[in-house]
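Researcher: I'd like a structural prediction for the single chain below. Treat it as a standalone chain; there are no partners to consider.
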Amino acid sequence: MSRFKKMLMNEEPKLVAPGVYQLTSSIVNVYFIGFPGEEWVLIDTGMPFSAGQIRQAAENIYGLGAKPKSILMTHGHFDHAGSLEELSRIWNIPVYAHPREFPYLTGKSEYPPQDPTVGGLGGQMSRVYTNKPYDVSERLEALPEDGSVPGLTNWKWIYTPGHTVGHVSYFREKDRVLIAGDALITMDMHNPAGLMGKHNGLWGPPEYFTPDWVASLRSIDKIAMLRPKVLATGHGDALSHRGLELDLIQFADKYRPPRHGRYIPEPARYSENGEVLSVPPPANDTLVTVLAGVGAGIIGLMAAYGAVKLNRNRKNNMEERIKLRRTNVELPWNKRMNRPPVSRERYKPVTFTLARRKNYDDYE
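Model: Treating it as a single chain, here is the predicted structure.
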């Protein structure tokens, strides 16, 4: 079944590893970590309209009225933290994130602007996305510095920046299960077929929202070195096929950033606590240039049409004035009496010579 059909059918959570359930809301994944009947945590919160679906899925897995011990964030983009404020308030539970992600989860700073100039369908769609922060400062706590994960034994968090300055992944070493967020994904965001789940594979982070490519490439290398056997990401199906470890190593070796874009020559700059200090100037947006050219052409055509229309109206007005003037002038008798015009062949002028000849003939 394609991902598009699953979205329409309000997909149910599915087991991707022991005690790890994946729920897809729209094209974004959230994860429930914990066995039924035990304490559990939620990783990420999906889109702003996902709260009801997430709560229903939690009750399907863990029972009526189930709530997690905490919410763990990979990062705070709108498609991963969209329901964070609502769910953390309803459940009244702590939210854990990397300290450098705090400015975007306390309402202090906006993320660097998205970059549609990377191209592709995802880049064009990003024009309508938001980079606004969320505010859960009353319940926000930092992930422990020792790498442990509150509420989850056998798990540790891995710092994987690049897509955001405070992005983290979660790794269970005993069976090598990795929840990578958007450090890399398994969905082709630039292809309509990929958005409908027809292409499974490995892709880099969503390029239109990645402002530091040097850090991102290092994070991909770090993930490949973990040699996961199950890879669950923020977008796309979880992968657990034989040879995944080798595929990740080859992907890390071959993957390259986009050829052009705002953050290709220079990354965004951050303060020590993760706030945005500066961003490079926007790259040349070919779509805007094309649209500007098309708009200028349309305006030129409209101006030309208006000029032609104006000249035609002036000509028609002139003809109407001339016609009106002619009707007011006294016409000849035959015109006034609506008689046909005089034909030269029928009515020849009688000259003096002809008159004399006529009289002479009559006399004869």
